[in-house]
Amino acid sequence: MSILVVGSVALDYLETPYGVREKALGGSATFISIAARYLAPDVRFVGIVGGDFPQAHIDDLTARGIDLLGLERVPDGRTFSWGGRYHEDMNHRDTLYTELGVFAQFNPAIPDAWRRSDIVVLGNIHPSLQSHVLDQMEQPGVVICDTMNLWIDTSREALLDTIRRVDVLILNDQEARQLTGERNTVAAGRRLLDAGPSRVVVKKGEHGAMLLSRDGVFFAPAYPLDALKDPTGAGDTFAGGFAGALAASPARDDEAFRRAVVYGSVLASFCVEQFGVEGVAELDAERIAGRYRAFVEMVRYTP
Ligand code: AMP
């Protein structure tokens, strides 16, 4: 099954109590694709970079089997760059800067051969661009959408228009409250179900993720870690693992989506153990399966 991924590609500045990285490979499309590719053979990447984007990153993504046909290169432009600083409590971060560069002119064009992709993951980009992508797709099986507080603040109506057209909305608890005005995350999730998607995933960082649908509520804890170095990209990696798990099986019942939440949590747990993409870059099927089994064991009990 194929997964089409659209999102940002970035050279990030990352600062946490454990260190600093400059010009680290990042961006929503990058994290999503790397994670999804471990579980799905056909990952299609749509993004934009400038002339400063190292060829080594392109070679690395290609070597992973990620199809870069949809990666636009603008030789005389600069790649999107984001700087973030985390404090002792890594649940909170400050954005130090956002330099759009070529991202300001991003107008995702989906290659003809990709218009019939099975799963579409709309990574974090302006919601009207997300809608523009959907306009180009032909009856995708599942559309998954991620977003961020910036778009809730600045482009609320466009975001609501996009949300109306997606099957699964993934956002964090603070964003769910901000978007709905509800204080309670379960109430917020239910309100979002009325806004279009048949499933809503509300992420609560180290406190796990909740899946809401008309079938009920499922809750998965986060995998317990004693060494967390950099949370950047955890949300995107979750979305990549989630999509990858769906691509691995044709099942679309509640069980399939529950499994996808657990795979998303497993992949995200590797992400936060290292800086940037480092934590997800060095995985293999065996390590993912091992942590998946450990996860299942962790929540097992005898009723
Ligand atoms: P996350 O930690 O899951 O929110 O994702 C972090 C990634 O999002 C970083 O690699 C950033 O480059 C990227 N990012 C930050 N701000 C934006 C933005 N406004 N639009 C798109 N991507 C962004």
- Which geometry do the CA atoms define? globular
Mean pLDDT: 96
Rg for CA atoms: 18 Å
The major β-sheet equals: 9 strands, mixed
What ligand species are in this complex?
Answer: adenosine monophosphate
Which regions have little confidence, pLDDT < 50, spanning 5+ residues?
none
Proportion of residues in extended strands: 25-35%
Question: What's the short version?
Answer:
The protein has 303 residues and is an alpha/beta fold.
Detailed description of the structure:
The chain is an alpha/beta fold and 303 residues long. 37% of the residues lie in helices and 26% in strands. The longest helix has 18 residues, at 254-271. It starts with a strand and ends with a helix. Adenosine monophosphate binds at residues 8, 10, 12, 26-28, 82, 98, 124-125, 150, 232-236.
